[in-house]
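Support reply, case 0932

Customer input (verbatim):
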Amino acid sequence: MNLLSWRVFSLALLLAVALGMPTVSRAQDAQPMNEISLGSAAAGGGGGAASTNFAGGTSLDGSEFSSGGTIAASTTGPEAVAFDGTYVWVATQFNNSITRVRVSDGAVAGTFVVGKRPVALLYAASHIWVANLLSNTVSKVSPSTGGVVATINVADGPGGLAFDGTNVWVANRHSNNVTKISVKGSVLGTYPVGKRPIGIAFAANSLWVVNNFSNTVTRLSLAGAVLGTYAVGRGPFGVAAQADNMWITNYFDKTVTKLRASDGFNLGTFTVGDGAAGIAFDGTNVWVVNNGDSTVMKVNPSSGLVISTYATGKGPFSIAYDGAKIWVPNFASNSVSTTAAN
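Our regenerated output:
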């Protein structure tokens, strides 16, 4: 099946889930979260909200439109999130901007123009890094001003970001590779992985790349050499490091897979919610975003059992931890949900 066919297939399966259908299997014990509106238009000339006449529909992450479907006029498509020590930043992709939210009080503190269709964020080397899916660029942004200080050309469809302590790595969804860039903005190399790399994380002196269409995770050395390829569930999406383990969400299987970071050995697969997408570790527990259920679950990393479930806005994909609270942008609600982690 070619890439276009895969996009159409993903659309048919997920349009109703991500864009406004009521949640299908929200847990009965889901606890409420505080929900903060992100507004509907970018400041500083970033453009308005998404049109109701968008000629397209959502793929696995709500960011690529191919045929059929519309979204609400007020929806800016908040998808990715990152924490810089003071603010959480949310990529509001349909107005080509990022929005800054102060964690101390939840106040929206500015919206800033980046490239076309920003879908991934990273805070590293004192800057915010933005993957612009349809510009094939990464924007390096000053957290204090929101201004773009550098724009780096990468490969086709950048949509995942990680930092290895020295360099930034970019997962390129459409070209099936990852690009390593210096924090000064120089491209240092591009390396092949599996089909549609979407999630990426650094741990155990390696890059762990989630291949969404290959149902695998590729482990790369810092030089870009493949150290291993590991089978996981269907439609793997997010990845997070926890102690000596890597956790991967499997979107279509409603599960997460736990891999041993030293050698990729499969330590178990555990049931979560529908459309398992974003994932984060708070130092104690693993948090899993369920796009189809519009929930986030707190999971015990030892047993893999769900400790508690929280109700988010509609269609969440990603998650960030600020040291005290978790933050979840809601793709179809144009908001971000937050709650105390412990």
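We compared this against your earlier run and they match. Two observations from our side: Residues 203 and 241 are 6 Å apart (CA to CA). Confidence is low (pLDDT under 50) at residues 2-27, 41-58, 65-71. Please reopen the case if you see a mismatch on your end.
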